[in-house]
Amino acid sequence: MVFFIIGLGLGDHRDITVKGFEAVKTCKEIYLESYTSILGINKLQLQEFYGKEVIEADRECCETGIDQILENVSKDPQNNYAFLVVGDPFCATTHTDLFLRAIKLGIKVEVIHNASIINAIGCTGLQVYRFGETVSVPFFTEKWKPYSFYPKIKANLDHNLHTLVLLDIKVKEISEENLARGKKIYEAPRFMSTQIAVEQIIESDKQLGLNAIDEKTKCFGVARVGFETQKIVSGFLHEFLDIEMGPPLHSFVICAKELHPIEEEMFQFYRNNQQKID
Amino acid sequence: MVFFIIGLGLGDHRDITVKGFEAVKTCKEIYLESYTSILGINKLQLQEFYGKEVIEADRECCETGIDQILENVSKDPQNNYAFLVVGDPFCATTHTDLFLRAIKLGIKVEVIHNASIINAIGCTGLQVYRFGETVSVPFFTEKWKPYSFYPKIKANLDHNLHTLVLLDIKVKEISEENLARGKKIYEAPRFMSTQIAVEQIIESDKQLGLNAIDEKTKCFGVARVGFETQKIVSGFLHEFLDIEMGPPLHSFVICAKELHPIEEEMFQFYRNNQQKID
């Protein structure tokens, strides 16, 4: 019996590895993690491709139901199980936690890696070795404006490093109002756009008085990396206030102050080709 | 006609994605980049799996022969071609250069992403978001000891970030002696072990007088990530002088000063399980 934790990569059903696909076909039950990222296709398309049922594991399931699933797995040594994760299995802490819990129950775990935005961001032409700490930008609200991600961007700029900026995803959230009333009513999913992210980045810079960015700060907006509709746009920070990247997921990069020659060439390339390339 | 640049991932032939595998099957010629990394299998096994010939593209080919290949591709709009890269296509600058050259010749390029050590290093349980700049450690010689990678490790430690340390690979190198004599005799391939890397790291710290590391510095050695024989070992820096990680490729991680609780748990886990896990 093996409990597979399988990365699905970034695009559609065919971005799973051959190894992962073969593993899935041996499994009794297949869980799909569905709240830290999204695929370009839905559960039904995955089911059709695998020829098997896929059980969606939302946030609630991952946080509170997972022990029950692992308990069942550990009691069924005859069968394989799979837990599918968009991107790479270890790119979210919650899946590392899953790995540890399974091991503790004596379950044989096998991890199958895949691309994640962490390495696929190289599609911009920026060298993946020159990225500093990754930051996540949360949706600001009127009352809650956590600027704490911003000094990390400044530190990266000070060290002449690029910053990968991950944008907030709100899936299966309950509004404060409904939460207070004990009503389990989910809000519509929300995915932060590069436009909102840039607004919040500029606001953070002003509020903290750091002056780390200006109109000459080079940036990349990327959307739907690995999807057929992938879009990569380069430009100066303030230009992104007006650039529409289309449907989710979006990510953003704030470039180091100096670009290497090939990085500069790629920046110019995507500045002149603001459309889908590959 | 499409020129595919396809990531093979980190393990064996079955780590290619289904999308990549399907693309390969449509190609007239398939080139395999074979000098920035290594796969767990050889060209013959790939050929058997694809049912097609695979042409090895060594350093010489990539640096000087590639223009001729692209020229041929651009003149043959009826057929698809593939260039296979271990890991992810954009994790080495030379492949970004290939991408740009192809585009300039008007060739339609399609990139198929995969896992690379940049994201798969999450297998240690360390959060991929908390890594600072990646460093590469070159083989020191008696005359040439470039310590320039070391201040980057210190900067990461100062910011409480992990450092991924990539270790030198020497494939198809010609010795200085033979180079001076104009003899094209290749040395045997050499792959740096974590033991050599740690020796050089300790030497660099001493020579630069930075005192950034000590006997309490937590580290991970990883070998053959994604292979069936993958090995992950955690321990304190100096312990790695005696830890044998086996065959290549090796990579190394110097942990941030403070670990998050799940990171600490994974550190303890691999400290107590110094053997192949998944």
UniProtKB/TrEMBL annotation, chains A, B:
<comment type="similarity">
    <text>Belongs to the diphthine synthase family.</text>
</comment>
<feature type="binding site">
    <location>
        <position position="167"/>
    </location>
    <ligand>
        <name>S-adenosyl-L-methionine</name>
    </ligand>
</feature>
<dbReference type="InterPro" id="IPR014776">
    <property type="entry name" value="4pyrrole_Mease_sub2"/>
</dbReference>
<dbReference type="InterPro" id="IPR035996">
    <property type="entry name" value="4pyrrol_Methylase_sf"/>
</dbReference>
<keyword id="KW-0949">S-adenosyl-L-methionine</keyword>
<feature type="binding site">
    <location>
        <position position="250"/>
    </location>
    <ligand>
        <name>S-adenosyl-L-methionine</name>
    </ligand>
</feature>
<keyword id="KW-0808">Transferase</keyword>
<dbReference type="GO" id="GO:0032259">
    <property type="term" value="P:methylation"/>
</dbReference>
<dbReference type="InterPro" id="IPR004551">
    <property type="entry name" value="Dphthn_synthase"/>
</dbReference>
<protein>
    <recommendedName>
        <fullName>diphthine methyl ester synthase</fullName>
        <ecNumber>2.1.1.314</ecNumber>
    </recommendedName>
</protein>
<feature type="binding site">
    <location>
        <position position="225"/>
    </location>
    <ligand>
        <name>S-adenosyl-L-methionine</name>
    </ligand>
</feature>
<feature type="binding site">
    <location>
        <position position="10"/>
    </location>
    <ligand>
        <name>S-adenosyl-L-methionine</name>
    </ligand>
</feature>
<feature type="domain" description="Tetrapyrrole methylase">
    <location>
        <begin position="3"/>
        <end position="239"/>
    </location>
</feature>
<comment type="pathway">
    <text>Protein modification; peptidyl-diphthamide biosynthesis.</text>
</comment>
<comment type="function">
    <text>S-adenosyl-L-methionine-dependent methyltransferase that catalyzes four methylations of the modified target histidine residue in translation elongation factor 2 (EF-2), to form an intermediate called diphthine methyl ester. The four successive methylation reactions represent the second step of diphthamide biosynthesis.</text>
</comment>
<dbReference type="InterPro" id="IPR014777">
    <property type="entry name" value="4pyrrole_Mease_sub1"/>
</dbReference>
<feature type="binding site">
    <location>
        <position position="88"/>
    </location>
    <ligand>
        <name>S-adenosyl-L-methionine</name>
    </ligand>
</feature>
<dbReference type="GO" id="GO:0017183">
    <property type="term" value="P:protein histidyl modification to diphthamide"/>
</dbReference>
<feature type="binding site">
    <location>
        <begin position="116"/>
        <end position="117"/>
    </location>
    <ligand>
        <name>S-adenosyl-L-methionine</name>
    </ligand>
</feature>
<dbReference type="GO" id="GO:0141133">
    <property type="term" value="F:diphthine methyl ester synthase activity"/>
</dbReference>
<dbReference type="Pfam" id="PF00590">
    <property type="entry name" value="TP_methylase"/>
</dbReference>
<dbReference type="InterPro" id="IPR000878">
    <property type="entry name" value="4pyrrol_Mease"/>
</dbReference>
<keyword id="KW-0489">Methyltransferase</keyword>
